């Protein structure tokens, strides 16, 4: 079955620690995205990548970092510089390409709680 | 500025009643439009999309949406709601070209279904 996996589903960390969220897809999609979801605020784009070894900042990139070393993987690191990291994080992918927009497919999400 | 507005934060309908969820967008370029559904604690599932052509599009689970360019709207409809339709619904818009495939999401509309 093709799809997007995110692990773990729940993650707990102490303040001041960096944490990495996993996102893997076997859809052979070029583009991948990370969103943050907070109650009543919809989805906000953190980072996106249209192709391996390349990524761009989204609207709320401060305090986050990503890498795209493989087509199927796009891990997100929440650093200690992120002021309010507790949220629900969603990874998505699309056929992508540099020019055209396509529908995005989403993973099940990771709920991160930092105390 | 590009934006998506879902005017209704929360809607309650009776099972078997019809449903219309509103979505208005502000977008300078030719818009690509999407509706997604999210169950609590889950990822987003694509219901339907509009790229071009017939302005009435059919989606999964019996949903449809109509693109009205003159009103900058893309409202989602279902003739008869089932209890399993209770969820949060997101409208999203993207540019046809040259935006890295990024989507802008509305704040979401939470749907409750009364028995």
Largest sheet of chain A: 7 strands, mixed
Q: Which structural class should the secondary elements of chain A be placed in? A: mainly beta
- The average pLDDT of chain A is 93
Q: How many individual β-strands of chain A? A: 11
Distance from first to last alpha carbon of chain B: 41 Å
- How many distinct beta strands of chain B? 12
Q: What is the 3D shape of chain B? A: globular
* Cα radius of gyration of chain B in angstroms: 14 Å
H-E string of chain B: EEEEEEEEEEEE
Low-confidence stretches of chain B: none
Quaternary structure classification: heterodimer
Total helical elements of chain B: 0
Provide mean pLDDT of chain B, rounded: 93
Proportion of residues in extended strands of chain B: over 45%
Rg value of chain A = 13 Å
Mind sketching the topology for me?
The complex is a heterodimer of chains A (115) and B (115).
Chain A: E1 4-7, E2 10-13, E3 19-25, E4 31-37, E5 43-51, E6 54-57, E7 64-66, E8 76-78, E9 87-94, E10 105-106, E11 110-114
Parallel strand pairs in A: 2-11
Antiparallel strand pairs in A: 1-3, 3-8, 4-5, 4-9, 5-6, 7-8, 9-10, 9-11
Chain B: E1 3-5, E2 10-14, E3 19-21, E4 24-26, E5 31-38, E6 44-50, E7 56-58, E8 64-68, E9 73-78, E10 87-95, E11 103-105, E12 109-114
Parallel strand pairs in B: 2-12
Antiparallel strand pairs in B: 1-4, 3-9, 5-6, 5-10, 7-8, 8-9, 10-11, 10-12
Give the gist of this structure.
The complex is a heterodimer of chains A (115) and B (115). Chain A is mostly beta strands.
């Amino acid at each position: 079955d093709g799809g997007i996996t995110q692990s773990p589903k729940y993650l707990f960390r102490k303040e001041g620690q960096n944490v990495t969220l996993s996102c893997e897809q076997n859809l052979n999609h070029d583009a991948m995205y990370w969103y943050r979801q907070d109650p009543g605020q919809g989805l906000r784009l953190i980072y996106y990548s249209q192709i391996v070894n390349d990524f761009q900042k989204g609207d709320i990139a401060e305090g986050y970092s990503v890498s795209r070393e493989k087509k199927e993987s796009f891990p997100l690191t929440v650093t200690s510089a992120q002021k309010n990291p507790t949220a629900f994080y969603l990874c998505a992918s699309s056929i992508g390409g540099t020019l055209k927009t396509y529908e995005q497919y989403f993973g099940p999400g990771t709920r991160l709680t930092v105390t | 500025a590009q934006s998506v507005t879902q005017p209704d934060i929360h809607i309650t309908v009776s099972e078997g009643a019809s449903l219309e969820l509103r979505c208005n967008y502000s977008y300078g370029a030719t818009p690509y439009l999407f509706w997604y559904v999210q169950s609590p604690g889950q990822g987003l599932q694509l219901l339907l999309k509009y790229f071009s052509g017939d302005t009435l599009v059919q989606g999964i689970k019996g949903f449809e949406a109509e693109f009205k360019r003159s009103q900058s709207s893309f409202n989602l409809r279902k003739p008869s709601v089932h209890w399993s339709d209770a969820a949060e619904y997101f409208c999203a818009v993207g540019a046809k070209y040259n935006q890295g495939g990024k989507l802008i999401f509305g704040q979401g509309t939470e749907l409750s279904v009364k028995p």
